[in-house]
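hiii, so i know i said id send this last week but things got crazy w the move. better late than never?? heres the sequnce for the chain we talked about at the cafe, plus the structure i predicted for it. fair warning i was half asleep when i ran it
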Amino acid sequence: MGDAELVALYLKHRAALWRTAQRTLNGAAVGGVSADDVVQQVMLELRERGLPPAAAHGHIEAYLLRSVRSRAIDAIRRVKRFDQLPDTGSFDAADPSAVDPLAAAEQASFVRRCDQLLTYLTRNERYAFEERVKKQRPVKDVARELGVAPARVSQLVRAALRKLRDGLEEDRHAS
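okay and structure toks below
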């Protein structure tokens, strides 16, 4: 798809795409991601990948709206996942007294334990986890690199998360 075609698609559908992103994000930027960011991300992905066959047969607007909604939901999920992490205080280099030493020690211990638990994962579980969760890479790309189906990547990530969670729960019960 050429840039001229992409611009024409954007101009034709931008209002509907923006409204869908706004509605999905409940009218506010989520985790620094606004409706404009979501629409831009979808258009950039469209430029890189082109239209899928179904969208090329007259379902372009439905495809674009579904893509915008999915990207907005992804942004919400990333924020929710981040909000579920333990709050260990913040570090302000300009104000060393702002650091809670106990919170910093707990965070360091938590990070060390997670790194230790990562060593118990299989090579594929660790790779899938790091690429999907840490780097937020698309399932298809990770699957292609591992030489497995996208569904298998999701299974590997779930298995890795289960092992990490179980290890952390064992630590909690042992304390």
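btw DSSP finds eight helices and no strands in the chain. thought thatd interest u
miss u guys!!
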